[in-house]
Write a structure and sequence with these properties.
Elements lengths: L16 E4 L8 E4 L5 E2 L10 E3 L20 E4 L5 E3 L14 H5 L4 H5 L21 E3 L6 E3 L19 H7 L4 E2 L11 E4 L22 H12 L8 E3 L6 H4 L5 H8 L4 E7 L2 E4 L2 H20 L5 E4 L21 H12 L4 E5 L6 H7 L5 E8 L24 E6 L6 H19 L3 E6 L16 H12 L6 E5 L5 H18 L14
Parallel strand pairs: 9-11, 10-11, 10-14, 14-19, 15-16, 15-18, 16-17, 18-19
Antiparallel strand pairs: 1-4, 2-3, 2-12, 5-6, 7-8, 12-13
Helix pairs in contact: 3-4, 4-12, 7-8, 10-11, 11-12
Catalytic activity: N(6)-acetyl-L-lysyl-[histone] + H2O = L-lysyl-[histone] + acetate
Subcellular location: Nucleus
Protein name: histone deacetylase
Length: 516
Amino acid sequence: MASDMQPLSGHEIPSRVVENCGVSDHACHGKCQSCDSDVKPSCAEVNGISLLIGSHTDGKASKEKCGACTFTYDCAGPDGCLIATNGSCMAVDELTQQFEREQAGAALEDLVFSNDEEEDDSDWDPASGLVMNRWFCLNCTVPNVDEVMYCLNCHELKGSGVDGYDAFKTQIAEAALVSPDTELPEVSTAIGFDERMLLHSELEVKPNPHPERPDRLRAIAASLSAAGIFPSKCALVPPREITKEELLMVHTPDHIESVEQTKNMLYSYFTSDTYANGHSACAAKLAAGLCADLASLIVSGRVQNGFAMVRPPGHHAGVKQAMGFCLHNNAAVAALAAKRTGAKKVLIVDWDVHHGNGTQEIFEGDKSVLYVSLHRHEYGNFYPGTGAAHEVGIHDGQGFSVNIPWSCGGVGDNDYIFAFKTVVLPIAAEFAPDITIISAGFDAARGDPLGCCDVTPTGYSIMTSLLTACSGGRLLVILEGGYNLRSISSSATEVVKVCIISDNSSHVRMGCVNMI
């Protein structure tokens, strides 16, 4: 593919680039827990780059540098995407009279500026004019004016939240445990989860809630419980923190240390949208540890497949930097754990709406790991800006990075399934992996405030079914992004249903046809 793929239906939506923003000399900064003073833990220096509409608030990523800027968004654009604005939330004197224009997709400039008069803003304080007459949807975090009772993005009722997590929590003790030391469970699907990952949250008070929030896991857990999947049809993997030695196979010592230092701070930031608090280092190590153990259990045959219900996500975390809400690269850790257990070849399919720049960087020279990503790209104008079709790997890994970049938002089930059948599956069949890992971001789902695409739970179910045959049913699904709670919970549940059904499907164990 010489250029970005056009969707099968719909028209191209022009990108909207927001103003440049700066970043401090160190990407990491925060508050010390003991003295409440501003501190900067040791971590890599970065340069400021432009903010690009689409998702995360950093700009176009590179393997050496990442950007940072203030995270805000105020309205939906013509394609349903949130339009970002650099800086804190600006005053809106007449927002209540203009919310109909917001619903129709008015431009941000039409909504946030209080008047057309030129003013001296040399002493302007962004925090002095914060909008007070609006509410944020608990389902998708999109702001709405007080006059509307249903979210203009996802149509969720004002004030509605996540229900059902308490039921899941009480059932954890009932779940069968599976590990290398336990008896084989009666079920063949394992789930990785630990409540301590819910403690990772943004503590600094900001105008808008952060989309990567603990309720993402609560919503998925509640859905699995309500569907009768957990605990009766799944085993639970005992949690453990990944070791430093395992992380060193993926990340540099400086990166690992910078994440570890966040334990000593009340809150900190690697980039302005990639936060940490005193619990984040533990949460990140638990997420990586669960992914590693699930991969090992699958390759060793103790379970057939698994779902890592983990956070923080990982596919943007590169060799030496945390970015895009990601601290450690969970998929990379899992792939290397699979190889240590005996897998010769590992397939990683990344269907998160954003390119997994970190995963691609880690394996771009490794021909034993085939990385395939389907993502919005928009000719480099969609976060993180990497993932063009010509990025195919380097050295021995040349040809083992496959990027399927979309040229605009709005792509849906038919587009993804067509790409799977014509590109992903033929390449996967020729590669003949021993295990397939899905970097399962659900931010391409319908109603997601950052991805602005149209994939349904059925679409994710079909894609999962297509991938189950690629490695004899040995499949590990790792949660990445996805910020509409209803979308990620229903989509993740449909994916896990496929895993459970595939356990007893004889055609799955036949695997892909080896075309080598």
